[in-house]
Amino acid sequence: MSGHDQLVHCLCELTRLMWKLLLPLVFLCVLLITVLVLLVLAVRFWLQSNRNARRARDGRPTVAFFHPYCNAGGGGERVLWCAIRALQNRYADINFVVYTGDLGVTGQQILEGARRRFNIVLPRPVHFVFLRHRLLVEPGLFPHFTLLGQSVGSIFLGWEALTEFVPDLYIDSMGYAFTLPLFRYFGGCSVGSYVHYPTISTDMLSVVRERNPRFNNPDYISNNLFLSAFKVVYYCLFALLYGMAGSCSDLIMVNSSWTLDHILSLWRAPNRTSVVYPPCDVSAFLDIPLEDDGDRKCHSIVSIGQFRPEKDHRLQIRAFKKVLDKRRTGAGGREALKLVLVGGCRNQEDEDRVLMLRGLCQELGVADKVEFKLNVPFEELKREMGEATIGLHTMWNEHFGIGVVECMAAGKVILAHKSGGPKLDIVVPFEGGQTGFLADDEDSYAEEIQRILALPSASRLQLRRNARQSVARFSDQEFEACFLAAMEPLMGTLER
Which of 27, 148, 246, 366 could form a disulfide with 267 if both were Cys (CB 3.0 to 4.6 A apart)? Predict the structure, then answer.
């Protein structure tokens, strides 16, 4: 037998062997896929049976909001309660449920907290489903691969929510996009989402690519070429999964132009996406008088925001320190100056962060001029804003900035970060007049604070008037009208 014939014979034998191995493998794959499909269908049938039994018992459909931190007291929680209030006022024949992980309080205490913090009272009660495994979405549980860990954790938390209660319409109001396919394909629910902030964005990718240190890109990664390259690949793959999950949503609402741009690039569903600016309690601050502040002996700088790392309170304290140093050298006015940090703490991690910020104040020698106001009631928040001259905001790429709007409604001179929602939607000219100031680092913040304090009081007063008039477009009434208009197609699908 020639060498050519031997080669042909070997190839034939190899092909025959591969075919013998391939057939069982294909059969096994088909069997596994069939079992998986049957399992999914069985679970879906079981969940929908539960929903049908509940519908027969209640006699009306149910809309559920997934908001594991509904008692946190931040801007996202204000959106939740305003949304439920608007829907309850419009649809009297529909029940409402909130999935929450706040186990230490009762439903009544949560509603009382909403009234105390946001001045919001619901026209009728809602049912709370308390989730026992909120720890699965805590960032502290995942020191590395946090985005992936929290997203996988949200799937398990969403599964707990779905098995506890199967709604007719599911709304993710806190940004857990990976729960959307779970409720749509397993629960058979219509699904919608209100996106405050994309879990990942092109800006985050650019920060890693350019190897810039940030709170979510520590020095040991930004200084290492291999780790930076690995993180870029990780972010790109995660962005792909995030886009696939988000695209399952029947309705997508975003809170700002900045968020809209990122969600359109990731979820690619322009026909289902609209901007619904979050509700800001503009009217509650309009009774704060707009008076000339030229005779003040102490100017207060107030910051409104939860004590989360991305809010960058460290930047506020360091910039404030630079302002004080300049004033000591004679480069500023003689009025006393203080910084008031007002915000909520969601958990022990936030409380530990406050302790670190207090330590930073001690280290910089400004502890006697910085005040911390934690989880304060609405009236105290309003009092602090009424006494302030400047409203301060330092979060890079803030999705919207409810605290910024509230400061402007209260008639404060706003100094916000030169990015995200504040730059694109809020601190923009109004009828040709300036409404505030923008900065992006310690030096520019210190310079702008000095500039604001150096303005003639009459100029500050006119700027404050412009700011107050410009934020009427972010009122509760505007939110309710836009939110109800966006929700109407989904609400119309509910069987009464």
Answer: 246
E-strand stretches of 229-343: 251-254, 273-275, 298-304, 336-343
Closest CA to 101 of 153, 181, 150, 157: 157
Q: What pLDDT does 51 receive?
A: 86
pLDDT over 60 at 37, yes or no = yes
Which residues is 430 bridged to in the sheet? 433
User: Which residue ranges make up each domain of the chain?
Assistant: 58-279+478-495, 282-474
Q: How far is CA 190 from CA 341, 367, 421, in A?
A: 41, 51, 29
Q: How crowded is residue 52: how many other Cβ atoms within 10 Å of its Cβ? A: 11
CA atoms within 13 A on the CB side of 282: 19
Domain 58-279+478-495 matches domain 282-474 at the CATH topology level = yes
User: How distant is the alpha carbon of residue 205 from its chain centre?
Assistant: 18
pLDDT of residue 270: 94
Amino acid at 320: F
Please give the distance of CA 235 from its chain centroid, rounded to a whole number. 19
Cα 171 to Cα 123, 126, 129, distances in angstroms: 20, 15, 14
Its pTM surpasses 0.70: yes
Class of domain 58-279+478-495: alpha beta
Distance from C-alpha of 30 to C-alpha of 359, rounded to nearest angstrom: 61
Helix (H, G, I), strand (E, B), or coil: what is residue 481?
Answer: helix
CATH architecture of 282-474: 3-Layer(aba) Sandwich (3.40)
Q: How far is CA 159 from CA 7, 187, 341, in A?
A: 56, 10, 37
Backbone φ, ψ for residue 136 (5° rounding): -65, -15
Rounded Cα distance between 329 and 2, Å, is 98
Residue 337: closest CA among 368, 299, 370, 367: 299
Q: What is the pLDDT of residue 131?
A: 97
Q: How is residue 286 written in tokens?
A: 């309009």
Q: How far is CA 309 from CA 88, 202, 215, 428, 481, in A?
A: 35, 20, 7, 26, 33
Cβ burial 78-95 (10 Å sphere, 16+ → b, else e): bbbbbbbbbbbeebeebb
- Contact present, 276 and 482 (Cβ < 8 Å): yes
